[in-house]
Amino acid sequence: MLQCFETSCLFNNPPFFLKKNLICLFISGFFKQLQVYTEEFRSWPLFKLWIGPLPVMVLYHPECVEVILSSSKHIEKSYLYKFLHPWLGTGLLTSTGDKWRSRRKMITPTFHFSILTDFLDVMNEQGGILLEKLEKHVDKEPFDVFLDITLCALDIICETAMGKNIGAQENKDSEYVRAIYRMSDLIQQRQKSPWLWPNLVYMLFKEGREHERNLKILHNFTDTVIAEKVAELENSKQMKRDTDGNCEESGSKKRKAFLDMLLSATDDGGNKLSYRDIREEVDTFMFEGHDTTAAALNWALYLLGHNPEAQKKVHRELDEVFGDTERPVTVDDLKKLRYLECVVKEALRLFPSVPLFARALREDCCIGGYQVPKGTNVLVITYALHRDPEIFPDPEEFRPERFFPENCKGRHPYVYVPFSAGPRNCIGQRFAQMEEKTLLALILRRFWVDSCQKPEELGITGDLILRPSNGIWIKLKRRPHAGSE
Ligand code: HEM
């Protein structure tokens, strides 16, 4: 539960405590209240809240955010991430200290550009299935596109992370797909409900037992995929040995997944990851790598459907690059889609998929002129940070031009951090941008999108991910001839 607290009892500097009774937070929504307070107290450098027994400093100014994100010391995640541990263990997102440093070093090369390029094929293939599904809505009633996009993103991450095609787009009722969604909901609910924090108490509630059931489904699935992949690798090595007496990996063109690379990655001492370590990382990619991208894509479509002038500019750019062909998107095409890139960035400014994230301070530090003691939990609210009217005038307006290179000059580097920043930034940033641009290019090459909701009808909720709780309702028209506008 969130409550205000008198700073003087915990911290030396007393000016920033909320005088209101914040008990209402659970009635009107945690994120909603954060939106209200960060606006109301925009001129303050920071403020403090209680989440149940947990005191939290709330940051939404670039100078304050920089102190935390640029530091190589404050890399420890807050207590709230503990509820991800049963599912993700202490993988890249949740680990800290030497374990995190060593993992980050081992895993960074798997996101190399040349490897991402291979994944573009998967994005084109799965995007093709999405287009066929969207086709049946052309010139029909408005429909909610949220799930279609999300299942496409899920298929993409499954195939790229595990090398496994789960066909979520065609079979949304798979046990694994359902478990992923239910698990994310349960974790968010637990984070906001301090009475569900102790494990023993949690297990007394039906949510706790459901959590256990879903955990088994998720882990069994990943364990099976890893075991299959190990067997496949052994087989192919054996076949290679049998055919030419050489035990090196075959030079066949089979597409690699992150999992293949994790199986061969070694640390500085030449040690490989255990199967359990690998499961942590694969589960982390599955969790962090699709919901985020799906939300970002949905918001971008909503914004374009709401801003026809910007959509026309995207269409013109697409026509210049693709003419009226429907060929797969290439890396070269992506480089040329500069306006679309600004659209993607501006959509993430207004609707950052991760609207807040938290750290626990490893040592006392000075933020915004105030001494904050070691152990304090710090919440970075990207949603509010990105709406600073001094830096982004008329912050609620969708203006991709804000991200033209000439308009970014001199901007504080920590004023726009949808992928976080500093040593613990998002490792999947380039992957996500590639996926967003590719899917948007595929969709907008073929369709004209109209958004059917006003901003207040979206039902914005921001827990782990910023989502429209009422979905994204759009209408589609087929574009007559690419290049005719
Ligand atoms: C639009 C899409 C995405 C957004 C907005 C996003 C945003 C973020 C943010 C804000 C963080 C920092 C979280 C924190 O400090 O608690 C993060 C971390 C992370 N993200 Fe992403 N992400 C996206 C896509 C992806 C994808 C596609 C992957 C994997 C394929 C991925 C993997 C990760 C991992 C592993 C971390 C932890 C990195 C570390 O601590 O070293 N993300 N992401």
TrEMBL record:
It holds the Pfam family p450. Heme binds at C426. Keywords: Heme, Iron, Metal-binding, Monooxygenase, Oxidoreductase. Belongs to the cytochrome P450 family. This is Cytochrome P450 family 4 subfamily V member 2. Signal peptide: none annotated. It comes from Falco tinnunculus (Common kestrel). Its cofactor is heme.
